[in-house]
Write a structure and sequence with these properties.
Elements: H1 3-23, H2 30-54, H3 60-83, H4 89-111, H5 120-148, H6 155-186
């Protein structure tokens, strides 16, 4: 197994650890740890693709499992956020519906021997999702530090700060919708002969 594929597997194995630190308060700096694990997993996403392309190590395993690992990381983290009241269920639903749509289109196009290239909106979707999730981790860790250091923060200020995570998540949801629509539009030709 080559290095890019190993990095993809590392990303997949990090998912349960990220979720565990979000859901369970078994470590003093759990939000920092969860955020660092998530960040490490997100970085492997950028690195494994670059290494695979630059060194000629692109494999069928990588083509299939790299996007699966991305989806696992984002969706599992969003679901854990929902469980903690940090994310609207609608955001996770939007992400899931988009992924089902795109995966279905890829299956049909693959069966016809057609490759639909990645587009800028797909990359923007991934970047906005990763950044939004990191912002939520930063906000939660800041709240934790305020509590530990006995820094009084009024409820309105806390709510205002928490809005940053909400806004970032909704921006990522908008990018997710747009990328799904663009992908569906690009693939319109593969459905022309459907009866």
């Amino acid at each position: 197994m080559n290095l890019p594929n190993k990095l993809t597997l590392v990303r997949m194995f990090l998912v349960p650890a990220v979720v565990a630190f979000i859901l369970y308060d078994f470590a003093p700096h759990r939000w920092l740890i969860a955020g660092l694990l998530f960040g490490a997993a997100a970085i492997t996403d950028a690195i494994d693709g670059h290494i695979a392309r630059s060194r000629g190590l692109v494999t069928d395993f990588g083509k299939l499992m790299d996007p699966v690992a991305d989806k696992m990381l984002v969706i599992a983290t969003l679901v854990a956020f929902i469980a903690k009241g940090l994310c609207s269920p609608w955001i996770a639903i939007i992400v899931l519906l988009r992924e089902f749509l795109v995966t279905s289109i890829r299956m049909v196009s693959s069966a016809k021997g057609i490759v639909i290239p990645a587009n800028w909106w797909g990359k923007a979707k991934t970047i906005t999702q990763m950044v939004a999730i990191v912002i939520v981790f930063v906000v939660q860790y800041a709240f934790y530090l305020c509590d530990v250091l006995n820094i009084a923060v009024s409820a309105p200020i806390k709510e205002g700060i928490a809005v940053a995570g909400d806004v970032a998540l909704w921006i990522s949801a908008a990018a997710t919708i747009i990328s799904g629509v663009v992908y569906a539009k690009q693939s319109g030709d593969i459905f022309k002969d459907v009866k």
